[in-house]
From TrEMBL:
Pathway: Purine metabolism; IMP biosynthesis via de novo pathway; N(1)-(5-phospho-D-ribosyl)glycinamide from 5-phospho-alpha-D-ribose 1-diphosphate: step 2/2. Its EC number is 6.3.4.13. This is Phosphoribosylamine--glycine ligase. InterPro entries: ATP-grasp, ATP_grasp_subdomain_1, PreATP-grasp_dom_sf, PRibGlycinamid_synth_ATP-grasp, PRibGlycinamide_synth, PRibGlycinamide_synth_C-dom, PRibGlycinamide_synth_C_sf, PRibGlycinamide_synth_CS. Its cofactor is Mg(2+); Mn(2+). PROSITE patterns: ATP_GRASP, GARS. The gene is purD. It catalyses: 5-phospho-beta-D-ribosylamine + glycine + ATP = N(1)-(5-phospho-beta-D-ribosyl)glycinamide + ADP + phosphate + H(+). Belongs to the GARS family. It comes from Arthrobacter horti.
C-alpha cells in the first residue's frame, strides 16, 4: 500500500518510521515533512492545512491511505475533503475533531456520554472568569477553548496570573474553560477508532513543563516514556469502558463518527479516573515512545481504522523493552524560539545502541546542513531492558547533539525509574455519578 502522511513534526517522523517497517507498505510520502523525514521518504512542499492542496497531492500520488498527523489540518476539514474524494483516511473529520478543537464541546460530549472529568465552567469575559476561579479555588486551571498547540493551559496558584491568561484569550477573540484542579499522576492513552470499534495502544506519560521538576510554563511536551509499570493493571480496560467507547458511541450517535486516534489525557486522582482533555490525533512526544515499542505493523492498523475494520485487526504485540523520549528545544522556547542554528552530532547520536533521533522543527539550509526551525527541534528515543537503561541511552544520545542555546529536561522518567510514582487507592463512582460530575 502507498501511504501519504500529512504533517511537519516529530509525531509524523515517528509514524513514517513505523510505516516503513510494515511489510504491507510499499511506498510512503510526506507533506511537508522535515529534514529527518526527508532522509527516509519523498517530501512534498504542500500546505497540509489546505483541504484542496492535500487532496490534489493524494490524487497525484494515487495514495491508498492518507494519515493526517497534526490537529490544524483536522480542524480545517482536510480529512473530510480527502474522504469526499474517495480516499481512506486515518484522522477524524472536522466535526469529530471538535473533541480537540473546542474544550467546551469536549466537556459537553463527556457529560452526555457519562465520562468522568473535572468540574468546569465556560467563561466569555473577565467577570465570568473571576467567578469561576473563585468557585473552584487554587490551584487554578485555565484553558484556552481553541487549539493552542499544547500551550493554551495555565495551572497556577496565582489568581492574578490565571486571570491574565484568561484575559489574553478573551482579547484574542476566544473563550476559556476553567476547571477544578485534578490531583494524581497523569497518563496519556492513544485509542485507535474506526467510528465504532476502539483499540488501545500502550499507555505513556508526558512531561509538559519546560523545566525539571515540572517547573516553568507549559509546552507541547518535553519528553515521554512507556510503558507505565506503576499504573493499575486494569487501567486500560477502565479507560476503554468508561471513557473511549462511550465517547466514540456518542459521536456515532450524533452522526459524526470518530475515525482516527482518540488521545485520552487522564489523571489518576484520589477520587478515581478523570479525563483532563481529549486530542483528536497522536500526541507528540508520546507517539515517539509508544511507536518505538509497537511490533504490530502500523500500516495495517491505520488502514483497518480508516475502513471501519478494526474489529478484524490482530491483537497488538509490544516489545518487552521500555522506551524513553527526550525532547531538545530551541533557546527561548516556548516563547519566541531561536531559529536557524546548525545542529551537529546527529549521526553520533543515532549510532548509540537502541537509540534513534526523531526530527521535529528541522530543515536543511542552502548547504544541505540540518538547522533548527521550530520550538521543539528533535527528540532522542531509546529502548532499554528497563527505564533505567532506556534513560541512560537516551541521555547518552542527547549529550552527543550540539545546538547553540538548546535546552532539554534531565528528569524525563526519573521518578518512575526510581519507583517513586504511587497511585492512591481509587474509588470508582458509578456511571451516573460520573455523568453528574461532568456537567459544566
Amino acid at each position: 500500500m502507498k501511504v501519504l502522511v500529512l504533517g511537519p513534526g516529530g509525531r509524523e517522523h515517528a509514524i513514517v518510521r513505523s510505516l516503513l517497517s510494515d511489510p504491507q507498505v510499499t511506498e510512503v510520502h510526506a507533506a511537508p515533512g522535515n529534514a529527518g523525514i526527508a532522509q527516509l521518504v519523498p517530501c512534498h512542499a504542500v500546505d497540509a492545512n489546505s483541504p484542496a492542496a492535500a487532496t490534489a497531492l493524494a490524487v497525484k500520488l494515487e495514495a491508498d491511505l492518507v494519515v493526517v498527523g497534526p490537529e490544524a489540518p483536522l480542524a480545517a476539514g482536510v480529512s473530510d475533503a480527502l474522504r469526499e474524494a474517495g480516499f481512506p483516511v486515518f484522522g477524524p473529520g472536522k466535526e469529530a475533531a471538535q473533541l480537540e478543537a473546542s474544550k467546551a464541546f469536549a466537556k459537553q460530549i463527556m457529560a452526555e456520554a457519562g465520562v468522568p472529568t473535572a468540574l468546569a465552567k465556560v467563561a466569555v469575559n473577565a467577570s465570568e472568569a473571576a467567578d469561576a476561579l473563585d468557585t473552584f479555588g487554587a490551584p487554578y486551571v485555565v484553558k484556552d477553548d481553541g487549539l493552542a498547540a499544547g500551550k493554551g493551559v495555565v495551572v497556577t496558584s496565582d489568581r492574578d496570573e490565571a486571570l491574565a491568561h484568561a484575559q489574553s484569550c478573551f482579547e484574542a477573540g476566544g473563550t476559556v474553560v476553567i476547571e477544578e484542579y485534578l490531583d494524581g499522576p497523569e497518563v496519556s492513552l492513544f485509542v485507535l477508532c474506526d467510528g465504532k470499534t476502539t483499540v488501545p495502544l500502550a499507555p505513556a506519560q508526558d512531561f509538559k513543563r519546560i523545566f525539571d521538576n515540572d517547573e516553568g510554563p507549559n509546552t507541547g511536551g518535553m519528553g515521554a516514556y512507556s510503558p507505565l509499570d506503576w499504573a493499575p493493571e486494569d487501567l486500560v480496560a477502565e479507560v476503554i469502558e468508561r471513557v473511549a467507547q462511550p465517547t466514540v458511541d456518542e459521536m456515532a450517535h450524533r452522526g459524526t463518527p470518530f475515525i482516527g486516534v482518540l488521545f485520552c489525557g487522564l489523571a489518576l486522582t484520589s477520587r478515581g479516573l478523570r479525563v483532563i482533555e481529549f486530542n483528536a490525533r497522536f500526541g507528540d512526544p508520546e507517539t515517539q515512545a509508544v511507536l518505538a515499542r509497537l511490533k504490530t505493523p502500523l500500516g495495517g492498523l491505520l488502514m483497518a481504522a480508516a475502513k471501519g475494520e478494526l474489529d478484524k485487526a490482530e491483537e497488538l504485540r509490544w516489545a518487552r523493552e521500555s522506551a524513553v523520549c527526550v525532547v531538545l528545544a530551541a533557546e527561548n522556547y516556548p516563547d519566541t524560539p531561536r531559529k536557524g542554528d546548525r545542529i551537529r552530532g546527529l549521526k553520533k547520536a543515532n549510532a548509540v545502541q537502541n537509540v534513534h533521533v526523531i526530527h521535529a522543527g528541522t530543515s536543511l539550509d542552502e548547504d544541505g546542513k540540518v538547522i533548527a526551525t521550530g520550538g521543539r527541534v528533535l527528540a532522542v528515543v531509546a529502548l532499554g531492558d528497563d527505564l533505567v537503561e532506556a534513560r541512560e541511552r537516551a541521555y547518552e544520545g542527547m549529550e552527543l547533539i550540539e545546538l547553540d542555546g538548546g535546552q532539554y529536561r534531565s528528569d524525563i522518567a526519573a521518578k518512575a525509574a526510581r519507583g517513586e510514582i504511587v497511585v492512591e487507592s481509587r474509588r470508582t463512582p458509578a456511571r451516573p455519578a460520573a455523568a453528574e460530575e461532568a456537567q459544566a
